[in-house]
Write a structure and sequence with these properties.
Helix content: 40-55%
Number of helices: 12
Number of strands: 11
Mean pLDDT: 92
CATH architecture of the largest domain: 3-Layer(aba) Sandwich
Low-confidence stretches: none
CATH class of the largest domain: Alpha Beta
Number of domains: 2
Structural class: alpha/beta
Distance between the termini: 47 Å
Shape: elongated
């Protein structure tokens, strides 16, 4: 079996269509299809079957795709061992992050990576719903994701997950709000306020859902945005209150709005670094992951 053909099968398992595999690998769709058919002839088992206008993996194809992950990971680990022996670290590492994670992690990460000038770190801001981060690992070496406290954890058995930190989520109110001087607030005290929220499916929205459940009635959301500085400005201007991540918003709170911990409910989000196992095994990628973990520990 050709390792390159196995990698195409693995890409098909991740991306779901020959067209997407061709886009990601820079090949034509006919070339991808031809190489997958060749792999099928080599193993002597049907790996693909028709599904509508496209194809999907058979059970045998899915099993071989899982084996392809092990093979590519082993090759990457061998290369990483050799790089460590030679005391070298080079290559390109592609990192996806969402806005508020970038605020608290990227400046320090860049400072740390200055010690490795031969590693090219390419960053790209991607803010998606809680269940969409896993898909980004097909196109990025590292994806910084977040999930809410108590949220269902997706099946990530095919990914490597590095926990970065848990960030508390506080209620933000204007400085002249009736609750601004409090040390903490309860869900009952804040549920009936007008809320500045985030789109449904995002971690902060799941936290607000938990607040509503504990209070026994729905929060009234008057505006939704993923842009934290806009939410902070709306709170400051007394348009409503909001749930904001503590580390991300604390530096901008002084003189503008108050951050109040929630009592009686676990309110927070978990930041994690997601990677394909074979990419995480690369020495350059591992160094970036280690730097992210170290930077997170300072918060």
């Amino acid at each position: 079996m050709d390792v390159a053909h196995l990698e195409l099968l693995r890409e098909l398992a991740d991306r779901g269509s020959v067209t997407e595999v061709a886009r990601a690998t820079g090949k034509t769709t006919s070339a991808v299809s031809q190489q997958l058919r060749l792999l099928q002839r080599q193993v002597g088992v049907q790996l693909l079957e028709r599904s509508g206008r496209g194809v999907r993996l058979t059970d045998a194809g899915a099993a071989l795709a899982r084996s392809a992950i092990k093979i590519s990971t082993a090759v990457a680990e061998a290369q990483a061992d050799w790089d460590r022996y030679r005391q070298t670290a080079s290559g390109t590492v592609r990192l996806a992050f969402f806005f508020s994670a970038g605020e608290i992690l990227i400046p320090g990460l860049l400072d740390r990576m200055a010690a490795y000038p031969e590693i090219e770190l390419i960053t790209d801001e991607r803010d998606v719903g809680e269940g969409e981060f896993d898909k980004l690992t097909s196109d990025f070496d590292i994806v910084i994701a977040h999930r809410s406290d108590g949220g269902m954890v997706a099946d990530r058995s095919r990914l490597q997950v590095d926990h970065l930190l848990r960030e508390p989520v506080d209620v933000a109110v204007a400085l002249d709000h009736r609750l601004a001087g409090r040390d903490r607030v309860t869900t009952e005290e804040v549920i009936d306020e007008p809320w500045i929220g985030v789109p449904a499916g995002y971690p902060l929205d799941r936290v607000l859902t938990a607040v509503s459940l504990q209070a026994g009635r729905d929060a009234k959301i008057i505006f939704r945005t993923t842009h934290l500085p806009l939410a902070e400005r709306l709170v400051e201007d007394r348009h409503g209150i909001a749930l904001l991540p503590r580390h991300s918003s604390r530096a901008r709170a002084t003189g503008r709005f108050a951050l109040l911990p929630l009592a009686g409910i676990r309110a927070g989000r978990h930041l994690e670094a997601l990677s394909r196992p074979d990419r995480a095994a690369r020495r350059a990628v591992r160094l970036v992951l280690d730097a992210l973990v170290a930077e997170s520990a300072t918060l």
